[in-house]
Amino acid sequence: MIEIKNLHKSYQMGKNSLHVLKGINFSVEEGELVAIMGSSGSGKSTLLNILGMLDELDEGSYTLDGVPIKNLNETKAAQYRNKFLGFIFQSFNLINYKTAAENVALPLYYQRVGRKERQEKALKYLEQVGLKEWATHLPSELSGGQKQRVAIARAMAAEPKVLLADEPTGALDSKTSYEVMDLIQKINDQGNTILLVTHEEDIAHMCKRIVHLKDGVIVEDKKVDQVRAEQYV
Amino acid sequence: MFSRDSWKEIFETIQKNKLRTFLSGFTVALGILIFVVLYGFGNGLINTFSEFFEDDATNTFFVFPGRTSKPFKGYKSNRQIEFDNSDLADIEESFPLFLEYISPRVDRSGLVKYKNESNNYTTRGVSEAYQFAEKTIIMKGRYLNKQDIKDKTKYAVIGRLVEKDLFKNEDALGKYIDITGSVFKVIGVFQDEAGDDEERRIYIPYTTRQLIEKNTDKINQIVIGFKPEIGYAGAMAFERKLGDFIREKKYIDPNDQRGFFIRNVADQLKQNQQFAGVLQIIVGFVAFGTIIAGIIGISNIMVFVVKERTKEIGIRKALGATPKSVISTILLESVFITTVSGIVGMVLGVAMLSSLGDSLKDYFITNPFINMGTAIFATVVLIFFGGLAGYIPARRAARIKPIVALRDE
Q1: How many domains does chain A have?
Q2: CA distance linking residue A213 with residue B65, whole number of Å
Q3: What residues does each domain of chain B span?
Q4: Is position A11 within any domain?
Q5: Where in the sequence is the domain holding A46, given as residue range(s)?
Q6: Residue numbers in B near A89 (CB within 8 A)
Q7: pTM exceeding the 0.80 threshold for the entire prediction
Q8: Coil, helix or strand for B311?
Q9: Which long-range contacts (CB under 8 A, 24 or more apart) does A47-50 make?
């Protein structure tokens, strides 16, 4: 599903160049649930942004579902993001003047799905995350966990190949975190590929594989026995 | 770009961001409103100026006698100049190319009576040609004619308000009135656009007036109408030649400015029109400034709107919005708001002008108006620049990497 070879990325910080990713080799199969771990500054978010085509790589190659991702212009990148990827952010990033259902329907709008179908699908995915009754509420009327579940429904709505989650539980208390992880695990059970950036050990162990990043290189890549979040809920 | 869906998206955004919509709409509407009203006021000023002259013919000279200020050819200084009937004939004979008509004007005021009603009016002795100079409109009966002047008839043409004052509901035609002791037959009733003062006048043959005043041949003033086809330059030349002629005939020093005066209506009109034109330019300049201020206002708001929406744009891009769709959403929104509020401002302004009508006449603004072409042009200009003002920041926003836009708080 994802194939990364010899990935390099550096940022220009004034006159100094900061080498963030120093040759990453990494692949993800379909249906995997991968946690990317590392302390801050290890490059884990940068890696996720490159995987999400939110940022560009300097060197190396990136193939997503057999499609080489390189030299994309903004329009092409937007189309690929829409087709291949679903994003879940730490700060939810819902549009605050749109209702939960409208937020979920937004990626479908950019897929040019008809209005009726959009609404139906939005409700379907809201139901999956258990928020059907909250469809007409604005984000400001939802709790943090609910917001993140709306964001997950939105990421799912476009039926992407890969879900990318950047610290999805970073802004949540542990109980809500486990609820969100439970949801993510269930989505993964349905066969969806999910990549998740976190720095919390317990969250990482709820995945099936942990990739440790340190100073821009992968120092550890191991399969783990998944801890089900269900038992904590 | 113009699908129902994208409009729906825009309407939803507008609906849910009322303050933002109101602010940008208000700026545009106000800009157009002020433009339309100012421009209309400018036109109102011009209307006032032309109205001052409208009720009288503009191809007219008024010649007033004065007192000499210099001795000349044995005559002493400070001599009163008087005109008489021979002057009329001489002027008529000497300027056949320029002159269209000539009439004396002898004003006397005094008590006018009919039955039990009486009032003081100005009675003006004139010739039949005077009707053209004053643009008098006969409502009923007739004006004085050549025969009346020749026969020194005791006929009077009275103003509409004279009839109303003295005759109440009676028909004045054919009735006899007493003008300072002499009986005149009313042969006509007139109206005059200049209003009340002029409609409280009575015209009688100047010859009759002279007869009453011991058969004198003196006249107060001379009113001369020149042929309109001689134009402005011709009128100025005529004025000069006429002045020379009178100076020579009345033995007035060529450099004496005080022996008599010529009031050239055409010249005054032209000067006033120029003045009004300058005013219009100034008002136009201010109005243009208002439009510029409106454009700057809408630009500022659009920059702010795009700034405020940076994060939203980032989210949309992460969800698959192409730069084109980001630009078109913002652009359509701004064009839509400017169009609607521009039209609202324009309609309000035009409505305001037409409701004002003559109510600001005391401030020299008569019947302010703006022609639709100008109003629509200004609105279109503002809409265009409103769109441009939206486009530039929208394009910049669409170019921001989603990762940067998402970081924006």
Answers
A1: 1
A2: 110
A3: 4-53+270-407, 82-249
A4: yes
A5: 2-95+161-232
A6: 406
A7: no
A8: helix
A9: A47/A7, A47/A21, A47/A197, A47/A213, A48/A164, A48/A166, A48/A195, A48/A197, A49/B403, A50/A7, A50/A9, A50/A21
A163: closest CA of chain B, how far (Å) = 12
Alpha-carbon distances, residue B5 vs A110, A113, B12 (angstroms): 11, 10, 11
d(CA A227, CA B222): 117
CB atoms within 10 A of CB A17: 10
Question: pLDDT-derived band of residue A62, with 50, 70 and 90 as boundaries?
Answer: very high
Determine, yes or no, domain membership for A133. no
Instruction: Give the sign of the dihedral formed by CA A133, CA A135, CA A138, CA A140.
Output: positive
Name the strand (E) or helix (H) holding B185. strand B182-191
What is the pLDDT, as a whole number, of residue A165? 92
Q: Which of A62, A46, A50, A43 is nearest to A2 (CA)?
A: A62
pLDDT (average), residues B387-409: 79
Q: Which helix (H) or strand (E) holds B133?
A: helix B130-134
> B-chain residues within 8 Å CB-CB of A121?
none
For B395, other C-beta atoms within 10 Å of its C-beta total 15
Residues 6 or more apart whose Cβ sits within 8 Å of residue B207: B125, B149, B150, B152
Residue A212 φ/ψ, nearest 5 degrees = -95, 125
CA A85 centroid distance within chain: 8
Residues of B with CB under 8 A from a CB of A: 5, 8-9, 12-13, 16-17, 311-312, 314-325, 398-399, 401-403, 406
pLDDT of residue B46 exceeding 90: no
Give the pLDDT confidence score for residue B400 in this predicted structure: 81
**What is the ipTM score, two decimals?**
0.89
